[in-house]
Amino acid sequence: MLRVDIEAAGYRAGETTLRKIKFGGGEGELILVGGASGSGKTTLLLTISGVLSSLLGGWADGSVLVRDEDTLKTNSVASRLIGLVLQDPEKQVLMPTPLDEVLFTLENLGFSDEEALARATELLKRFGLFNKRLDHVETLSGGEKRRLSLASAISHKPYLIMLDEPTASMDPWGIREVRKFTNDLIREGNIVLIVEHKIKYFLDLADKLVLLSSGEKIAEYSGSELTSRSLLEKLRDANIDVEPVHEVPREERDKKRGVGEVILTIEGLECWHNSGKPILKNVSFDVRKGEVLVLVGPNGSGKTTLLKTIAGFHKGYSGEIKLRESGKRVFYVSQTPDYMFLESTVEKELRLVSSRVGLPLEALIEKIPFYSEKKNSSPYRLSLGQRRWLSLVVAWAYKPNIILLDEPTAGLDIGFLNNLFSYIRSLSREGISFIISTHDPRVLLSLADRSLMIDGGRVREVEPYKVALMLESIAGVY
Q: How many other CB atoms sit within 10 Å of the CB of residue 18?
């Protein structure tokens, strides 16, 4: 049994982020929580788990009963009964290897060495990480880190499992496994609470949907309501993704929209982390001025490694990376936006960028739709979607010729997503080229001039719409 009755909660005294949120769930139920970026979804999970008040210096009034024990009053109760997977696995993975990470959780909860090792081995096999159990976690892809955080979060067999944006940065094979994993947890009698922008991946499994806006519950739906056409229309209006690719009309866009001359040539590229074990083999392609090129492939296939190699960060490679003209600049935007920030507030961050690039502060501010509301907030306290948006504005400010985007849509609601797509299109019309690594079918439909599939270390070109349908088919939506 879960009973959430939060009167108010916030990160600092005098600042209220959540107010009057009440809902519940029973054994074997899936509760979905939706809402636009910044609506309070992540804060809700942090409050329920006790992390807000115990680790982040925040506060919460009310009660959260999990099996009749109040997690707001006793931290040990929360750690025993709840498993939490954050939307950003970089903030959750602490140990050097996947095996160490799962063992760390179990040993801290009192499991014997023998029992902990057996349980860790079982989970790493279940999440496809056993063969990488002794690899350093920094060699894992973003999706693999997410699977590792899932394995660690359920290692102690908690009663309530909470997942924050579990499909973000996850490839379709991983999404299919998360759906199966969720279904298994429900059948075993657990309560699962999922925060997700792309609720189309879980709506068919859900018992209840709770919608948030500006830190308050604005609606709750259950049972047959979840499959009604009227609800789907309401969800679209609330910037929640409910439509699979095959139901969305293909955007009318000129596929031959005047891309220019070749500005980047990749020829015979081979990349590796360990010499003798190449991740990418004989990769060759060109990028033209103003072109949007999309990279797709399973987690761990080498997409991020390819972007980092082009950017000059990854040195384990052979082959040719040639910018056709001197003075051409490449800017890499990580899938972890926090790496981009240096200052304590959004305003200070933009002032620093302004001073470095020579742009007026106002030119940066007008690119941030949430600036007036969040200018005094820490960049690290923004929602993941807002942090990602801020990192893209920082990239734009440096006026590169080619922008490399690694999973740029993870954590964005549809409103932010559409603004992002418009922004990228406008920059591409100005002659800026993009290479985008993604698992998101919407990027392929709305942005891609061409798409490259990485499979088995090699690259082949596939028509974007076909790739989009394939991704959702694998995930179990189409």
A: 27
